[in-house]
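User: My advisor, Dr. K., asked me to get a structural model of this assembly before our group meeting. I'm new to this, so sorry if the format is off. These are the inputs:
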Amino acid sequence: MKEFENLGLLNINSSLYKTRLSPKFINRKPYKKADQRIILSFIPGTVLDILVSEGQKVKKGDDLMILDAMKMQNKLKSTADGTVRKIFVNKGNKVAKGTKLIEMK
Amino acid sequence: MAVNKKIRELQEKRQKILLGGGEQAIEKQKAMGKRTARERIMALLDKDSFMEYDMFVEHDARDFDMDKKSLPSDGVIIGSGTIYGAPVAIFAQDFTVAGGSLGLMHSRKIAKIMDHALKMRIPLIGINDSGGARIQEGVNSLAGYGEIFFRNTISSGVIPQISVILGPCAGGAVYSPALMDFVFVVDNISKMFITGPEVIKTVLGEEISMEELGGARVHSEITGNAHFFAHSEDECFEQIKRLITFIPWNNSRKAKSFDPGEPDKSFDPEKIVPDDPTLPYDVKDVIRSIVDKSDFFEIMELYAKNIVIGFGRLGGRTTGFVANQPLEMAGVLDVDSSDKAARFIRYCDAFNIPIVTLVDLPGYLPGVDQEHAGVIRHGAKVLYAYSEATVPKLTVILRKAYGGGYIAMSSRHLRADFVFAWPTAEIAVMGPEGAANIIFRKEIMSSDDPDGMRKQKVEEYKAKFANPYVAAAKGYVDAVIEPKETRRFLLHAIEVSENKVVPMPEKKHGLPPF
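Assistant: The format is fine. Below is the predicted structure of the whole assembly, which you can bring to the meeting.
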């Protein structure tokens, strides 16, 4: 029998298999439940305008920020009534997809 | 004398055109490690076999001062020739002429050779090396791409279509290769993407090089767009020639037969596969222990390595192999490996190539990423492809064949013609550990020594179900065979299946889950 290098263990239905693990499997992102209080950029773009300030009370549907992406000005709206706890970005910032923009309370 | 003069005139015209975009442009092409379009054709085809058509074609664009520009052969070479004596139609874009850009006449030349290939029922080879649409020709160049995509689709499954990416192939242009059967790429030369790094940077702010975005390695390892990866144009041409030896000219023929030869004795199937189903081995060695002269030609070697696909010969005749690879990700089926296998099965079916399936898999890969990436719909492709295939389907279960994976891998239930199993085969609804945990849950939980009880129950389950005989007793397995008998049984099965006929219900076409 041949000997193989770089073997790991893969659990399928309670059996542990000695095998090579693919980079795609190793680098997969573990699933995390979305935190409703934190607003992330859903697309990479530029923060065109911030319409609220920290501590401000907002109602569901209020505009929070304008994110310029794909030649569109996207209005980010509040999904619930609450208070703006923290703003992580400044006007003019370029943000990648998934960047923390605002934390609500 | 007049004739001589005219012949000389022809020779001079040809000489001028053969220079393509001129010496400077050729030098630039060489500096990038690339051959010119005509050199590539000469390197690929049999010596002196190439006949060029439409050499004198010229564009008739008028806008943007195009009327003052002469573009020899309009930037693409077309013609026919042979590879190991087999006729092929070929086109090669000439990057030295206006960056190989695609204008109306350029596309008409490609369409012409494609029509020719389909009419003559010979393989089509396309060499792509182009900056993209010739912007000056506007909507005419879009029309040109559309005409090519349409022909790619209509020819699909009738003649083999081979795409060779030897330079940039960007924007809409990528869809012609994507519609063809096999895509060949070369490290540092091939570049394929829909939107390039510049656009991605402006629009999304992401910075990436062409190579990282759509280089040969990316398409061979990550996207699965490419089927063959080479380090040089020479290696790439050798791969294409080798592929041509395995496939037929068209869908009404069979691939050429070769002198059969016994496999290399150093590949002993009994010594390759460990008895313990959790231990790895290289299934390619099992394939080499079966095929003529141990000669196996792997396809998509770097992508979704948990399944192995490729061609070998049995008794001189081309056979497609699909095999779970326990060495990589335990040989599981997942989104990528399902996609890879399904397309290959359909290729073999379209071109009269029998399929041998070697089974050893624990099932499907669990995970949120897999479920959300659509493992249901992608996994279904394998079931569809095997069920629909009417070429001879021969299955050998080497070791474990659990659950849905067992059904999917060319089982009797999907109408495999022959199912053989080694004595090491375990055909069961799941692995012994998982099964014992469910069936004997109460006994294990209520025991004073749950771990000891679990072990005992696992052993009980193994003894009863981890074998090929339960399935053989139902006729789901035709024969339990010794590993060393595999080649003999397969050779016989191929011979018996030679004139296989399967009636299928009439339909326009099915709806495979793609």
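One thing worth pointing out at the meeting: The domain at 2-246 of chain B is CATH 3.90.226.10 (2-enoyl-CoA Hydratase; Chain A, domain 1).

User: Perfect, thanks a lot.
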